[in-house]
Amino acid sequence: MQELARQTEVAVEHLQAELKKLDSDAASNQMMLHDDGQVTYSTDCKEADEIERLKRAELQIETAARALMTQAADVDSDATAVLRKAASGEITAGDATSTEEIKRTGREQGSLTTDPPAPQLTPLEAKEYWDALSPEQQNYVLSQHPGWVGNVDGIPAAVRDKANRAMIPVERARLEAERKRLQDNIDDNHFGGTFTNEDAALWYVEEKLKDLDAVAAELGRLVPDDDQSTPDRPRDLKLMLLDMTSGERGHAAVAVGDPDTADHVSVTTPGFGTNVNGSLEGMVTEASNLQKEALRQLDFVGEENQTVATIAWIGYDTPNSTGPGNLDTARGGIDVASDSKADDAATDLANFYRGVDAASETSDPHITALGHSYGSVVTSHALQESHGAGVDDAVFYGSPGLGDAGTVSTVNARTLGLDEGDAFVIENEGDHIADFGTYGGDPTRTGDLMQLSADEGVDRTGIAREGGSGHADYPRSVKGPDNNEWLRMAGYNLASVLTDSGLEIEEPK
What is the C-alpha to C-alpha distance for residues 143 and 383, in angstroms, rounded to an integer? Predict the structure, then answer.
């Protein structure tokens, strides 16, 4: 009973503090928060932009209020249940013999419970679910059930990172057990896995184990400290996604910097042939270089106090030519000529954008969607399906089109849910994949999007940039005369859109 009283006091104090914050938020927006969680306010004499801002604030406050009410009801229900058990003599010492064992047994029977997030929560609801938990309950979730929150969009990036790192050994043990089971079955079968497809299943399990190794290696990679006398230091990385169950291949997303506190956040979606094992290291390196260039540009325009986070998102089964069978190369070709994988990934990517927006501690983070190759198709579908998903700008590079396969595209900023002038396209010289325009035509030829340069030239900060060629080197850096790594012109323009600096260089009309 003592433990129940303590936990109830902690939980109620947390709920009261969160409610006080909500009342303050409502008052600052000239709103009234009612006992039933509803918010009311006046829109008289207000401009359209202000009304839109108030609608967003209303949704946030009402969602948070509902989460607090749900948590309060859970605390009340748990406390009532424990009191009834105590009154009926159901709380006993059991087989405990020592004082410490008796205390532990009592705590186990007389404690509040913590529920997992409900399925199908919106990212904003997930964020408010987490905030409604007391610090003690949050620690319980992270220590006992990290799988509840690691991949839930809207949960803070630092929480997802801690949860997903904890899941790496758990997933490895699960996959190793599955590998042994499949291998034993194949060894016991005279025909191996030929007629059961267990040999193919084993191949994918092996690939996911390699994916886990790649994630662990990337998180463990250190960078030299500027002070040669001090040891190398960990990088500021957040593991925002670790999913080894929902697809044929492993999925992961890694942020460079902290998306929850950053003023500017980008999410890069890759295309054909991308996988965690073979691509995560390169994508994180590119994200790191993009962040550095973005910070340099912010410093150039006098915004050195603003911060940037860049996210590499491999959150779907990309079209891929590798696999356990002889026909997998052909299957990869069929997949990349179809928009079915883009359709399958669109909702997950849109929710990821929304999650970044919901979890942000800044009032209105500037979010940029970046899509390369087939990833531009995924990005376009995600934005169209969700009418923008909280994204402010989008850049499509090396894009084979932004619509559906075999149709004429009518995609523009408005259909993407963006403001006019906030959707951009970049194409390298000699990028024949982009020239094909498989998904509604080459977007550089429609005139519906702002066209940014990938050509050699001097940028608006005075740095000479190399041009790009072909399909792959848009975000890649080259070593300059000063022996430092510099992005090409395309990468410079990606950073300019990311920072909303106005420094981007357009293609000549």
Answer: 35
